Task: structure prediction
Amino acid sequence: MNRCLGKLPARHDYRTYRLAPVLANALPVVPAERDWSQGVPYQMWGNDRFGCCAFAAQAAHVATWTKAAQGLVMLSTDMVLANYAAVTGFNAETGYDPGTMLLDELNKWRTVGFQRPGQTRDYLTAFGSIQPTDTASIKRGIAFLGGVLAGVIVPQGFLSLPIGGTWDLSTLSGPDLTPAGGHAIALVGYNLEGVFFNTWGARTFMPWDTFTRISDEAYGLLSRENWLGIPGTSPTGEAFDALLAEVRAT
Result:
């Protein structure tokens, strides 16, 4: 099965919100493990043909959030590619497949919105950057916000793994460690050993040491539209104001 990359080099903007430390009396202690990915029917979403990984990750987050909080919402591949085109100018007919800067995607998602099933557009409420080596904040973003968007530099050896095979740098050596390119992934769960993520249509795992070595950007995401259930709280019972406080300027 083919698999494509497509994340452009990270661009850091000082104006981007930072994921705040745990606020006293605002949210519970971060649990030792949390996994929102079980049973979510992830798809390839065109990432076997095009460099639309950032938008496949967006579709994976929407599916993960809605399955946990409301009722499963699945974007079609056509929607994912249309969202990719709206941000980057992607054109399958001409072969223009430029890849994506994650900050461009996130800003468009928040302000303009993306296609989704039904008559409404999908809007991201807020996002905050996380230092990839700050695993405590990565866990916090997954546990309480339902997911983290991460950018990674994929070693050549990971492209030869079976789809869904564990990404572990300790298993690679020599030319297999050569960077193949940038890739966007949806972090949707974690345990003591590492992080679960969606890529190329499959729930996949990597140890924390691998993630902190290959990731060059990460963002906690808050979606009022997808992450809050009918009572107005997240699947773990947090009120929206408490969640929003997690994503604030430093």
